[in-house]
Design goal:
Blueprint (H helix, E strand, L loop, with lengths): L1 H8 L6 E4 L7 E6 L2 E7 L4 E4 L4 E4 L40 H7 L1 H7 L2 E5 L5 E7 L5 H4 L6 H10 L56 E3 L33 E2 L14 E2 L11 E3 L4 E3 L29 H11 L1 H5 L18 H4 L3 H18 L10 H10 L6 H12 L25 H14 L4 H15 L1 H8 L1 E3 L5 E3 L5 H13 L18 H18 L18 E2 L33 E2 L14 E2 L10 E3 L4 E3 L29 H10 L2 H5 L17 H4 L1 H4 L2 H15 L3 E2 L2 E2 H10 L6 H11 L20 H14 L2 H4 L50 H11 L2 H10 L2 E3 L5 E3 L5 H12 L20 H19 L18 E2 L34 E2 L14 E2 L6 E3 L4 E3 L29 H10 L2 H5 L17 H4 L3 H18 L6 H11 L6 H10 L3 H17 L17 E3 L2 H7 L1 E2 L11 E3 L6 H6 L3 H4 L4 H8 L2 H4 L6 H9 L5 H7 L34 E3 L2 H7 L17 E3 L4 H10 L3 E3 L2 H7 ...
Antiparallel strand pairs: 1-2, 2-3, 4-5, 6-7, 8-11, 9-10, 11-12, 13-14, 15-18, 16-17, 18-19, 20-21, 22-23, 24-27, 25-26, 27-28, 29-30, 29-31, 32-33, 34-35
Helix pairs in contact: 5-12, 13-15, 15-21, 16-24, 23-24, 27-36, 28-33, 29-36, 34-35, 42-44
Length: 1404
């Protein structure tokens, strides 16, 4: 079976579905681009029918026979098929026989789907409904297999109990479908008004206030369409019906109400009846006193017999022709003996669908055929959107993503999957003109009703979708959400709060519920209603993060200070609350726990910072008569005197009800409810209980201390229960949580005051902080601003807004096409010519600037596909630096993503003819080499911009007064990205418009501990990021270098592999690659991405792995390949033609062109030559992995060859030295060096830490990572440090030790090694990190301005002692290491005899 599929698909260039003949058509394969996508099996009783391109009843399928090969039955499907289960399923986890399901749900289908609506005398629905006469369950039995089909059938025909299309479009008022409903559900009504029915007023003739007038010529087409022009594509034109201008037909059905227009009809024009008029509902007559146009402009009904018929209104000469060819007389006459209706000519008598004796079945069969032929087989040639693939995603995603149904509506009614369809007015193969979908909102509702009737939607589907949403984002949950933080700001995966426990508890509380309370998963009756459930879950997680996850704590921390001290009586309540007085309401008072004075409990967890308050405790006054405070200086309780908390308590009697669990559930009411519904009380009352052994009233600490019994799920479950019981049910003074949640989601996720209100409800019991709630006095929620920021960050990380677009506003119908629209339209839109290129300094061959020849693309990808090339690039170029100094493979920038991007930028539709990425001219003998060198230069620059930092979003790196302004998103280095307009003549007008209300959060940021968070923009004032505390400080506002203290419209920071930034560059991306190109009917690589409205898509879209590269390549073309200010291509050609790829001629020109710091230039140069090595343009002898790495420190290349101080990265070098590669002068020393070097650790941190004495090992340091930082002498932002220390004499290389792998702390010459533990710094941690300047007497005057003297920094002395015994003299590092003869303990060259110098990190 698999062999046959592989052979068959290898010949298929496009998406094709073919039967597998060796299985007698029981199985079929889906092919795309010469490959097998998947193998599927038809349901029981059916086989694959090539005539309908789908599964059909066995008795009507004529499966082709394979000659000379005996049929082979396939093996039973494995437990894990290729991609999907063998039989269609409505659930991603349960195989369902669709026909059994239909039988089981018959009554629901008849109640919900197969019903029609009665109408009042004016044609509006009166709310009553009755069983449909024309569409009944038993007729549909065995044919319908998809709720989407039913949803559309309900909107097209069942709702009106009509087989024929009827007059619904009129002038002078509203359509019958408008009926006062939401404009979303009504579309075209007037040709004059051009709006929805609610907005339509005037007729085409300009008469205002007229009654309803239905053009008789509506038979020819409604909604600006002309059905007899619906031609088939050229390869199927032989099937379409020929328009018969002499045909006379009248529809069988029409609407029934007082003075309703008659059924549609068609007839030839005659001299006596040369035109048609209109039907006047006011008088109930057809008036033909003058020609009356329909919206298309027709004033006759000649040849207009091809209106819609059947369940989904099959219309037009192509669709009816195909029905005749495959099902009717046309097929029978052509030898198709199993045509279902061999005597029915659907072209000569299309009304047979509604009027023939077989109509009862035919109205379904013809519609099912059209659905299979036109909808199920739909593949968009531009975007690749495929119905079957998207259907599977929809099912696998829980049957809740209404984007699929919207796309299906577009295919059926407009001929495209993304209406309103640009270019769909070309009427081929069902192209229905451009416009909006008719009754789109109703179709979505019908679809969901059908799903529910089939028991495939509703709450179960929402839960599946919600669980799937978080499972699909498992990496984000692990790396961005479920993270805890050390007191020093270091993030780590939470120990207590795991994703598996979260999902387990969420499943139970949503599916089974507790005490009738369930977690709100969304609204199954609303299109895209899952978004409400997702927002609810994100809000829960954001609040939980601030309550407990951030601190990895289960018990409430003692955090509230009274006069700078922590009262021990905080166990009774913080924020002015008294937890033992948080009683239930009158109706629930029987549940609450009694307060027992003799109860004793001790919390399990507490804050983790050094000498933080001990865990909370409670106990009787007989044991603790009064309580004092926690002395954090001494790290112990001080009970010498009574010390009151904010509410005045000086004891802890009965104070055992502090917060516990993920939501810090507190108070006697909530613990009583836990016991009543989840604990021992439920068991005692004979009810089921999740935790029958825990009496939450006797042992509230069981929430945190029962981990061994119940695992981590208990801590989540308690939080979920409180959320469902107290937050979701909150409805006070008109503020209803569920309603406000929906308003937030439907309003575009913009009103973040909603978050503050929820924080108030959770923390204080009131929604309008500052408010009293549980308190005696009004207060704000604890860390209210942080909660809001965390929610926004989580919303961004989980891509909620990008996944669930808010519901669309009512879309008005397009206004009537102007007269000019009759100008013939070309078959494909003509792309405008690009502006004439300015003369370059030195003209390059044509091949350098335009679309690469196909052969050139093939040749370059031969090199790309070489496994050795891929391996070398992965190990030499696509590398990022971890904050520890280690070099890791880049997570964001992969070889696969690069190749995908290169393919898009060199072939196919491409980015516009002058924007192709250069990969060779296709003419020269060295065409491929030209292309490879251009790629090498591009990738080398990419290393300096983003790959080295593994960043997609620009990092916030610029400091102002030793702080990182949050307004750096507006621009760094004094720039303002939103003011960078396009200056080139050919680019003017392309800039993106700045929207001050746009809100975007970045995805990536620097990785070092305490680094600023991802950049963001929005309409707000901002402060700065304090990298020492790891927190935002927004009061007062803080300005960046350009003077900005807000982030309004500041969404244009750098993104992607070349950090594209500014409104001009994003505008050009949109003009050439994005939505603007598609809107202007030019080729577009990403027609669905508006880079001006969503610049963040580069880093956050599902296609980000290629977008990061594509946008960078486009920017390279614009700024380098098309630069008029450089000799880029002539220099490249000269470089390649010379054949000496080790020459720095070309990369020097590139460096001069692109600029950068010395570090940037060094990185770019090294990366350029490494890419050339990967492409084998620079010979790599033998296995390059075993070759010596000739990387050495020096001010320049020659200096490195003299000193031969080994290094791995620039951080391993001191002062102004950089790490240089290919320092061949040191080759002899490396090869001749004794083998002991290979056994020694090259990691200076390990060497120092292993060699330190007991004093260092036992030093009292709160943050163990501080030791590593000291050993590495590292500071978070290397760019800033390079600038700040350039003039510092202690960092100059001329008078300092030449270090090896890591620079040792420099000890000033004037100071001996002192036993003093006093050092200068801005803070104690800063002094600890730098170990730079001593203050022996302990006074601040000994320090530089802005620094203070701090004591007890013992580790610096320990490191000084280590360094003193690891410094030796030698001509170079190898010489010093081999001799180990003369120490230089002070680290000074003056201690050595010329020409020797002092070298560190030598352990003899």
């Amino acid at each position: 079976m698999f062999g046959e599929a592989g052979v068959t698909c290898s010949a298929m260039t496009t998406w094709t579905t073919v039967p597998l003949l060796l299985t007698k058509c029981e199985y079929y394969a889906q092919c795309s681009e010469y490959e097998t996508v998947e193998i599927l099996k038809c349901p029981e009783g059916t086989l694959f029918d090539v005539s309908v391109v789908g599964c059909n009843w066995k008795d009507v399928v004529d499966c082709p026979v394979v000659p000379t090969v005996s049929p082979v039955m396939p093996p039973e499907p494995t437990a894990n098929p290729t991609s999907s289960p063998a039989q269609p399923t409505m659930s991603p986890t349960i195989n369902v026989d669709i026909f059994d399901r239909l039988t089981e749900r018959r009554s629901d289908l008849e109640d919900v789907v197969f019903r029609s609506y009665a109408r009042t005398s004016d044609g509006t629905e009166d709310g009553a409904y009755y069983p449909s006469y024309w569409y009944q369950y038993q007729d549909f039995y065995g044919l319908a297999n998809i709720a989407a089909f039913l949803g559309h059938a309900m909107s097209e025909s069942i709702r009106y109990d009509a087989c024929d299309e009827f007059h619904w479009e009129y002038k002078g008022g509203r359509t019958i479908d408008d009926g006062g409903e939401d404009g979303n559900n009504g579309t075209s009504t007037t040709s004059g008004g051009g709006g929805t029915g609610n907005n339509a007023t005037d007729g085409m003739d300009g008469t205002s206030g007229m009654g309803r007038r239905y053009a008789i010529s509506n038979s020819c087409g409604q909604n600006y369409q002309n059905y007899q022009e619906y031609s088939c594509p050229p390869d199927e034109v032989y099937m379409q019906c020929e328009v018969d201008t002499n045909m006379i037909l009248q529809a069988t059905t029409g609407l029934i109400y007082h003075n309703a227009p008659p059924p549609l009809y068609c007839m030839p024009r005659t001299t006596s009846v040369p035109y048609t008029g209109y039907w006047d509902v006011d008088v109930g007559l057809e008036l033909s006193t003058y020609p009356y146009e329909n919206t298309y402009g027709r004033t006759d009904v000649e040849g207009c017999c091809y209106w819609g018929r059947g369940a989904i209104m099959s219309r037009g000469i192509c669709s009816l022709g195909k029905i005749n060819h495959y099902l009717g007389k046309g097929g029978y006459d052509n030898g198709k003996v199993n045509a279902r209706y061999p005597t029915t000519d659907f072209c000569a008598f299309p009304e047979a669908i509604c009027a023939s004796p077989e109509s009862r079945e035919m109205r379904w069969v013809t519609s099912m055929f059209e659905w299979a032929e036109r909808v199920q087989s739909y593949t968009d040639p531009i975007s690749g959107w495929n119905y079957i693939s998207e259907l599977k995603k929809f099912v696998d995603g829980g049957l809740v993503d209404m984007e699929f149904l919207r796309a299906t509506s577009g295919i059926l009614t407009m001929g495209c999957h993304d209406p309103p369809c640009a270019g769909s007015d070309v009427k081929l193969n069902g192209g229905f003109g451009s416009g909006s979908v008719y009754r789109d909102g109703e179709r979505e509702t019908n679809f969901q009703n059908a799903l529910i009737a089939l028991d495939a939607g509703g709450e179960d589907a929402l839960l599946r979708g919600l669980l799937g949403y978080f499972k699909d984002r498992e990496d984000v949950m692990a790396t961005q959400i479920l993270l805890s933080q050390t007191p020093q700001g270091k993030l780590y995966p939470s120990y207590r709060y795991q994703l598996s426990d979260f999902l387990s508890a969420l499943t139970y509380i949503s599916e089974t519920g507790i005490g009738g309370r369930k977690f709100y998963t969304g609204d199954s009756r609303v299109p895209g209603g899952l978004r409400y459930g997702v927002v609810n879950a994100v809000m829960f997680l954001a609040q939980a993060y601030k309550e407990s996850i951030q601190y990895d704590a289960c018990d409430e921390n003692n955090w509230e200070m009274v006069n700078d001290l922590f009262p021990l009586s905080n166990a009774c309540g913080q924020l002015g609350m008294s937890y033992q007085d948080m009683s239930c309401g009158e109706e629930e008072a029987y549940m609450e726990c009694p307060v027992k004075a003799n109860m004793e409990q001790v919390a399990l967890t507490n804050a983790g910072w050094f000498q933080a308050p001990a865990p909370l405790k409670c106990g009787p006054r007989s044991k603790f008569p009064t309580t004092g405070f926690w002395d954090y200086n001494l790290g112990k309780e001080n009970n010498a005197d009574a010390y009151a908390n904010a509410r005045g308590r000086v004891d802890v009697e009965g104070c055992c009800w502090w917060g516990r669990g993920v939501m810090q559930t507190r108070g006697v009411c909530m613990y009583g409810k836990l016991n009543h519904f989840l604990g021992k009380r439920a068991t005692d009352d004979g009810r089921d209980a999740l935790y029958p052994e825990i009496d939450f009233c006797e042992f509230p600490q069981g929430v945190c201390s029962s981990y061994d019994t119940y695992g981590g799920e208990l801590q989540w479950m308690v939080g979920f229960f409180e959320w469902a019981d107290r937050i979701q049910t909150y409805d006070v003074d008109g503020w209803n949580y569920i309603e406000k949640l929906k308003e937030f989601a439907d309003g575009g996720y913009k009103d973040f005051s909603f978050v503050d209100s929820v924080s108030g409800v959770l923390n204080l019991g009131c929604h309008n902080p500052p408010c009293s709630g549980f308190n005696n006095n009004a207060a704000n929620p604890h860390n209210m601003r942080d909660r809001n920021d965390i929610f926004q960050r989580f919303l961004n990380h989980l891509q909620v807004e990008r996944t669930f677009r808010p519901p669309p506003k009512p879309t008005p119908m397009p206004s009537p096409a102007p007269t000019e629209a009759d100008i013939p339209i070309t078959e494909a839109p003509t792309e405008p010519e690009s502006p004439t290129e300015y003369p370059t300094i030195s003209p390059a061959p044509t091949g350098f600037m335009g679309r690469p020849p196909t052969t050139t693309v093939d040749d370059i990808f031969l090199t790309m596909d070489d496994p050795k090339t891929e391996n070398r690039l992965g190990e030499m170029v696509l590398l990022s630096e971890h904050p520890s100094g280690e070099i890791w493979p880049s997570y964001l920038y992969t070889w696969r993503g690069f190749k995908m991007a290169l393919r898009k930028m060199t072939s196919g539709k491409g980015p516009g003819e002058k924007n192709f990425f250069f990969i060779g001219d296709g003419v020269s003998a060295k065409s491929v080499e030209y292309g490879l060198v251009n790629i090498a230069a591009f990738m080398a620059h990419a290393v300096t911009e983003s790959i080295y930092y593994d960043a997609c979003d620009e990092n916030s790196w610029e400091m102002v007064d030793f702080r990182y302004p949050l307004s750096n998103s507006c621009g760094q280095q004094g720039l303002s990205y939103q003011d960078e307009v396009c200056e080139k003549e050919e680019d003017k007008g392309m800039e993106c418009e700045v929207d001050p209300d746009m809100e975007i959060h970045g995805v990536t940021h620097a990785h070092w501990v305490g680094a600023p968070p991802p950049m963001y923009c929005g309409n707000r004032q901002v402060g700065y990021w304090d990298h020492r505390t790891g927190l935002e400080e927004n009061v007062p506002p803080f300005k960046n270098k350009a003077g900005r203290s807000d982030v309004k419209g500041c969404c244009w920071w750098g993104r992607g592999v070349l950090q594209v930034r500014g409104v001009c560059n994003y505008g050009k991306l949109n003009y050439w690659l994005g939505a603007r190109a598609a809107a202007e009917k030019r080729n577009s690589l990403y027609p669905d991405i508006d880079f001006c409205k969503n610049p963040g898509a580069i880093c956050s879209d599902r296609r980000a792995p290629e977008l990061r590269w594509v946008t960078g390549m486009f920017h390279w073309v614009q700024t380098v390949q098309r630069s008029r200010l450089s000799n880029y291509f002539p220099t490249l050609k000269t470089f390649v033609d010379a054949g000496d790829y080790a020459d720095d001629l070309f990369i020097s020109m590139v460096n001069n062109m692109l600029g950068g710091t010395p570090d940037d230039i060094s990185k770019r140069t090294d990366a350029f030559f490494n890419v050339l090595r990967a492409f084998n343009l620079i010979l790599v002898e033998g296995d390059y992995e075993d070759a010596p790495v000739l990387t050495f420190c020096g001010v320049d290349y020659d200096d490195a060859g003299t000193k031969c101080t080994p290094c791995e990265t620039n951080k391993d070098c001191s002062g102004m030295e950089l790490c240089h590669v290919n320092v061949t002068a040191c080759d002899v020393m490396v090869n001749g060096f004794n083998n002991t070097l290979a056994d020694e650790s090259t990691n200076a941190t390990a060497a120092i830490l292993n060699g330190v004495n007991d004093e260092l090992a036992n030093a009292t340091i709160a943050n163990e990572n501080a030791t590593v930082a000291i050993a590495n002498n590292s500071v978070p932002n290397t760019n800033t440090i390079a600038a700040d220390t350039a003039d510092d004499p202690t960092t100059q290389s001329s008078n300092t030790t030449n270090t090896g792998a890591v620079e040792a702390p420099i000890i000033p010459m004037t100071l001996p090694i002192s036993s003093s533990t006093n050092f200068c710094g801005e803070t104690w941690g800063d002094a600890l990190t730098k170990c730079a300047k001593r203050c022996p007497t302990g006074t601040d005057t000994e320090c530089d301005p802005g620094e203070y003297c701090f004591s007890d920094i013992t580790v610096c002395n320990s490191l000084a002692q280590v360094n003193a015994i690891s410094n030796y003299c030698g001509v170079n590092w190898f010489d010093a290491h081999s001799k180990c003869s003369k120490p230089c303990p002070w680290g000074l060259d003056a201690e050595c005899t010329p020409p020797e110098s002092c070298f560190s990190n030598i352990y003899c």
